[in-house]
Amino acid sequence: QVHLVESGGGLVQPGGSLRLSCAASRSTSGFYAMGWFRQAPGKRREWVATIFRGGNTDYADSVKGRFTISRDNAKDTIYLQMNSLKPEDTAVYYCNARPQATMIWGDNWGQGTQVTVSS
Fold it and tell me: For the segment 69-86, what is each residue's pLDDT rounded down to a tens digit?
């Protein structure tokens, strides 16, 4: 259905910042929610943040106060502003869509974008 492409990852020092982007092939402004997930080496994929249709947001405790999820409907793009990065934030970051409240997150995970936090 909707094709999502993540970008913006890279290598940063602890305490640094990155802004990830998730470009969609079509408008997601009417979707119930968009979200960011991440998967570190040797670990299962975990949920990071959600932005709902009305603009409300929710965050995992591990990133609360440091990460901000936002959207630009005109550009069909979702963002994840990552500040005060820690080594434990190192992971491949993925975005995903939840078109309706009665649906779960999609299972068509893309390439993701690598974030490495290291000195």
Answer: 999 999 999 999 999 999
